Automatic annotation (TrEMBL):
Protein name: Phosphatase PAP2 family protein
Pfam family membership, one: PAP2
Coiled coil start-end: none
Membrane-crossing residue ranges in chain numbering: 28-52, 58-79, 129-147, 153-172
Keywords: Membrane, Transmembrane, Transmembrane helix
InterPro entries xrefs: PAP2/HPO, PAP2/HPO_sf
Domain Phosphatidic acid phosphatase type 2/haloperoxidase: 60-168
Superkingdom: Bacteria
Length: 179
């Protein structure tokens, strides 16, 4: 286990250093980090899709709320407290205003971003690349800002994707049986 944690720390430091840390990139990734942590950002996207009827099947709202909510609760209320991993900026003795001081593993931002991207992409295929690109930028921002290690983000992304996929699979199976 120590080897895995050491590997994760090393790889995360490399990933955080891929893009130089300066005022411009700090502002860009802080913006994505703040967006990704806000349910309001994702609800605005859902509202726009609903209002402009970009997505005609309005079940996507129920699927979105259920998948986003359950993935976020599982990550932030259960798994983080079970694992109890310290955030990188705390371990490195850094000051960081964009990171909470709770536990690190798994990333709640990555979980919610990939849960949202998966549901939205299932119902709005022509913009799927935008949703997933946003989820990747939000997730990377957490590594860049030293809020998370790489494996925190990967685990969060997998949890968000898998829970949303399960919600979609269950709902589509039910619809097929009803018909």
């Amino acid at each position: 286990m120590r080897a895995l944690i050491g590997f994760d720390r090393g790889v995360s430091s490399l990933w955080a250093a891929v893009i130089p840390h300066n005022a411009l990139f700090d502002a860009i990734f802080s913006f994505f980090s703040l967006l990704g942590g806000s349910i309001y950002f994702w609800l605005i996207i859902v509202a726009v899709l609903f209002i402009f009827e970009e997505v005609r099947n309005h079940w996507f709202i129920i699927h979105f709320i259920f998948a986003f909510g359950s993935a976020t609760l599982l990550t932030n209320e259960v798994l983080k407290n079970m694992v109890g991993r310290t955030r990188p900026f705390l371990e490195y003795g850094m000051q960081q205003k964009f990171c909470p001081s709770d536990f690190s593993f798994p990333s709640g931002h990555a979980t919610s971003a990939f849960a949202a991207a998966t549901i939205l992409s299932a119902y709005d295929k022509k913009r799927a690349w935008i949703y997933y690109a946003g989820a990747v930028l939000i997730s990377y921002s957490r590594i860049y800002l030293y809020c998370h290690y790489l494996l925190d983000v990967v685990a969060g992304a997998l949890i968000g994707y898998l829970i949303s996929s399960l919600v979609l699979k269950i709902s589509f199976v039910k619809k097929k049986k009803v018909r």
